[in-house]
Amino acid sequence: MTAVPTTNDPRPPLLLLPGTACDARVFAPLIDRLGDYPVLIGDMGAATTMPDLAEAVLAAAPPFFLLAGFSLGGICALEMVARAPQRIGGLALIDATARPDPPANAAVRRKSVADAREKGMDGFILDAWPRLVAAGNVDNAGLRDTIVAMARDCGPDRLAEQAEVAIHRVDSRPRLGAIAQPTLVLAGAEEQVCPLEAQHEIAAGIAGAQLHLIADAGHFAPLENPEAMALHLRRWLNTLS
């Protein structure tokens, strides 16, 4: 658990969970726009099933917090809120899904890990690049370099763990109706990894959930259009603190 330095603050901290092959850099532009709100970054490693990862993050988290997860981090957030709803004051799901991993995906994920071990982590991102960002961002070299750098630092061992976590997750859709926390669902309007149908599915399943699609963004909406993302997150935080 990494803390962004803050003063002693009575507000519940916002725990941010990065996605596959990501780290705190995926949230950096958002954090810059959240002012002085206290923020923590969760460690999305050292587990090979989603239940074990959720328990590890919960064990390191403060007694009460707000929770926001991107992609795999959002899937983990759904597992956490099912396990410890009394500790979580609000939920934000960013380019995530409540659906289980299709059985055929296991072989695809493990093949990607094997390729990353053999050829390096760059290919893990570059092979999927047109699906990861909005059409207008495909030629954004700075954005691409940031995402590739995170993948390199993640490395194939952690990628292998996260692949198994993604494979070994449950279908969270039947549990959506039990979520009572104020919930924000955010996704790039050009999302291709966690389809827009899945975003509408989450919002429809959680009473009172707010869904906002982020213009000029695909799966990496927190980096593609952080201004719009931060606008919705600040409004959400203001209702909770």
TrEMBL record:
Superkingdom in the source lineage: Bacteria
SUPFAM superfamilies reported in the protein's UniProt record: alpha/beta-Hydrolases
Keyword Membrane: yes
InterPro entries: AB_hydrolase_1, AB_hydrolase_fold, Carboxylesterase_BioH
Transmembrane stretches, start-end: 56-78
GO molecular function: hydrolase activity
Gene3D superfamilies, sorted: alpha/beta hydrolase
One Pfam family matching this protein: Abhydrolase_6
Domain AB hydrolase-1: 14-230
Keywords from the named record: Hydrolase, Membrane, Transmembrane, Transmembrane helix
Tagged with keyword Transmembrane: yes
Identification of the protein by name: Alpha/beta hydrolase
Source species: Shinella lacus
